[in-house]
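Task: sequence design from structure.
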């Protein structure tokens, strides 16, 4: 999710589409939060870890 967010962020900046930039930032933040919670041992969506 973090990688997809980064790709969308870069595409949004290159093509000047603010919606892609916004979606990219949101996906990066959600992915980073899920990753950090998974590393802390918190279950996310019924899973014990993110991956």
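Answer:
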């Amino acid at each position: 999710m973090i990688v997809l967010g980064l790709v969308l962020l870069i595409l949004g900046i290159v093509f000047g589409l603010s919606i892609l930039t916004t979606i990219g930032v949101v996906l990066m933040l959600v992915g980073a939060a899920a990753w950090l919670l998974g590393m802390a041992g918190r279950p996310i969506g019924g899973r014990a870890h993110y991956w």
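The radius of gyration is 13 Å.
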